Amino acid sequence: MASPVQVDCFVEPGFGENAYVIWVKEAGACWIVDPGPPPSAAQILEHVSKHRLRPAGILITHGHIDHITGVPEILAAHKGVPVYIAEADKACLTDPRENLSAALMMPFVTEVTDTLDLPSGGEMTLDGSVWRILDTSGHSPGGRSFYCPAVGQVIVGDALFQMSIGRVDFHHSDGERLLRNIRENLFTLPDDTEVLCGHGPTTTIGEEKQYNPFLQR
Prior knowledge:
The chain is an alpha+beta fold. It contains 4 helices and 13 strands. It has a single domain (6-215), classed as Ribonuclease Z/Hydroxyacylglutathione hydrolase-like (Metallo-beta-lactamase, Chain A, 4-Layer Sandwich). The chain has helices spanning 40-50, 71-77, 175-186, 205-211; strands at 6-12, 17-23, 29-33, 54-59, 83-84, 123-126, 129-135, 144-148, 153-157, 160-161, 164-165, 194-197, 203-204.
């Protein structure tokens, strides 16, 4: 049976960052998740136009530069689209130190100051599909994941990768917190849940529980 939800991935070549477009039907609403550096936003906008989609929100899993660089381009094409980011990561949109671009000697900020929070344990709906907001902070203070039980998929940003986890050597990272959140909020999902990562290939919760070297007790 075909999935009622489409999740399309757009890979940016520099950082290898994965952006996603979530949608249910042609000419319907969509969410844009983590639009990254060029050509990410242009590819996303082309996809949105092709399927006559209406962006209903930009969802940010966390505020590091490679996951927010495409936000201004999306907003220039679709004015007024709300930006969702956890309150703890909101400063990343306007502070190059917080989004790590200052350390890369390529300071970047957006003009977005009016955002909507992503409360841990909350839910969002898109054309009938329900997505749970999971706390996966630790790589960044406000890291979030988006889980849709109906389709068995979770978008995790840089919290969890195939056989790896997000870096925790940044000034605002917390390694113990990240591991705890992965175990409590991701590893409690069904084993066959498909994990859509912020970089690299997809994996499953079951594979990572069994084989991820960072999470073996």
